[in-house]
Amino acid sequence: MKIKAFFIKIGQSISKGLRFVLNKISQAWYRLWQTKPMSKVRKVLFYVPNKLTENISFRKRKAIWGIVFVVPLIIGFIYFFFLPFVVTIVYCFSRVYNAGSKSTTGAHIGIVTEWIGFDNFKYILREHTTFRQTLLNSTANTLLSFVLVLVFSLIIAVLLNSKFRGRAFVRAVFFMPVIFNSQAVDVAMSIDAATLDASMDMAMQDVFTRMFNFGDFLINANLPSFAVNFLSTAASQIYDIISYSGVQILIFLAGIQSVPKHLYEAAKIEGATQYDIFWKITFPMVSPLMLTAGVYTIVDSFLRSELLTTINAFKRAGTRGLTSGLGEVSNYGIHASMSLMFALTSILLIAIVLFLMSKLVFYHDE
Fold it and tell me: What is the distance between the alpha carbons of residues 301 and 4, in angstroms, rounded to a whole number?
């Protein structure tokens, strides 16, 4: 308790010092703003806007400022999303060539496209050795991860919402994988990371196999084969489930803490058990956030799939011949077709998940 009181005093002292400094800065700025030189500066700065808007109503001014703030978003959407999307669609149905560079100046000439119809899609779906199977495996793994991560996150959020010693530390522990899985940490630890992960996985699998074979236990329990496969896969992916559940746990934890306390109090007075409280109050009240967590889980899991490795193998220039002997397709067109299939599959998964989960959503205000 003494240590806790000591840190509380330190925090209060720091907050008071920050408030004092910010207050002094704001007062100094206000005094400077009220001086005569600054008043002249204000007149110069606001002269043109005042002249332009002196005959415009307040409602129109609000509309103009709304347009001003939306214009950067529109420019960014067109330049960074819409134009690349259109170019990708064109590349999907074209044989794309790099025209090279000028011999005299070295300047890049550009890209040449030739319409070939659905040849790129025929190649990736019929002739490519691994893309179709990788796409199916990634979709199945994404759906499995969606179910496991969502269930695990909700259970952990309920546990973390209860009062116990060291609750703040445990919450931090469950959120730490989000930081360690970030791009910066991933790049910093990329040296020999694959070898280290493979060695650790082999060691952990060997240890757990010798201690306890979960698959054999389930088979001996006379469970159906689909249940054995599902539970065995879930047990083998427990590390990934914990690693990629941090954001979902925070989403559910925020939703649980926003549930009105009087609902729990009334349920306890009526003699409801914790099981009844979870299914009658917690789950329905948190269900709208399951849509948000579900979409995040689908996107995050699909972006971590092996499919991206297959797609990125075609980023460089080159051509591939069709086995039917009808011509060639370029790596640029293959890359664009794979990217489009990746995007369409992601959208389809999100649409299916939203449609199915929308049937379970309960809105307290309605």
Answer: 40
Q: Which residues contact 333 (CB under 8 A, 6 or more apart)?
A: 91, 92, 93, 94, 95, 96, 116, 119, 120
Beta-bridge mates of residue 37 = none
93, 117 Cβ separation under 8 angstroms: yes
CA distance 320 to 87: 21
CATH H-level superfamily of 129-358:
MetI-like (1.10.3720.10)
| Calpha distance 257→268 (Å, rounded) | 17
pLDDT tens digits, 77-87: 999 989 989 99
Q: Residues 331, 276: contact at Cβ < 8 Å?
A: no
Rounded to whole angstroms, the Cα distance separating 364 from 366 reads 6
Looking at per-residue confidence, does 215 or 72 come out higher? Answer: 72
Between β-strands 319-321 and 111-115, what pairing exists: parallel, antiparallel or unpaired? unpaired
Distance CA 290, CA 358 (A): 9
E strand intervals along the chain: 94-98, 111-115, 319-321, 328-330
Distances (CA, A) of 20 to 14, 26, 344, 366: 10, 10, 54, 46
Q: Give the CA radius of gyration of the chain.
A: 29
Do the Cβ atoms of 323 and 126 come closer than 8 Å? Answer: no
32 is written with which tokens? 């400077």
Q: Where are the domains of the chain?
A: 1-55, 129-358
Residues 125 and 133: their CA atoms lie apart, in Å, by 9
pLDDT, tens digit, 9 for 90 and up, residues 137-165: 888 888 888 888 888 888 888 888 888 77
- The two tokens of residue 62 are 């609000």
User: Of 299, 303, 179, whose CA–CA distance to 250 is shortest?
Assistant: 179
DSSP 151-188: HHHHHHHHHHHS--TTHHHHHHHHHHHHHHTSHHHHHH
Which run of H or E residues covers position 23?
A: helix 2-33
pTM score, two decimals? Answer: 0.69
